[in-house]
């Protein structure tokens, strides 16, 4: 009754099922790894955001690459803004997904070193070649607080570093590039300003990073493993249905009612 399993159709179906099971198991394992990675990142971000602010020079220095553990750490810096050399970062969105600029202003520390400060988001200019109007920061010596961030790269962000842009416009925030442009010692990375709040609410401060949805990856992992378990169950159901249909067809063929009467 099971000789039909040797037919071409059933051999192909069985091979496909045998391939699907390990594939789905591996996909579930990959999703579980993604869940663990995202959970770990969420923990790092939560700990960094919850830590007390420390002076920025305790975590970074000229040429320093901000590490994963240092990212999002709250830092403070005392000095003054240098608006003469500030630039805007193109193609950045706010919380409403409106496209505009981030305002990047050098912050001169007491020892003369420069810290790059992302002061927030402003709307785009009427034309891409025009320099937008930027609200001025507080004058004189102040203390700023912000989240420490690593230098942006094309590899990490996917943003192409386009050359030949209009004056004082950039694509990526990179302390090494800005140090060369300004001819100064710039601390590695930059900070996203969180305090003091700007007058009039502009530039619009960049919101806190949200948690990645790690639970979704966990659900996908369970889903793939359930699919893997369902493949042999489905195969058995199909085999039994095929066997039952063949048996019913054979019984109908051999039944007396289907046999012609003899004279």
UniProtKB/TrEMBL annotation:
<protein>
    <recommendedName>
        <fullName>SURF1-like protein</fullName>
    </recommendedName>
</protein>
<dbReference type="GO" id="GO:0005886">
    <property type="term" value="C:plasma membrane"/>
</dbReference>
<keyword id="KW-0472">Membrane</keyword>
<keyword id="KW-0812">Transmembrane</keyword>
<dbReference type="InterPro" id="IPR002994">
    <property type="entry name" value="Surf1/Shy1"/>
</dbReference>
<comment type="similarity">
    <text>Belongs to the SURF1 family.</text>
</comment>
<feature type="transmembrane region" description="Helical">
    <location>
        <begin position="218"/>
        <end position="238"/>
    </location>
</feature>
<dbReference type="InterPro" id="IPR045214">
    <property type="entry name" value="Surf1/Surf4"/>
</dbReference>
<keyword id="KW-1133">Transmembrane helix</keyword>
<keyword id="KW-1003">Cell membrane</keyword>
<dbReference type="Pfam" id="PF02104">
    <property type="entry name" value="SURF1"/>
</dbReference>
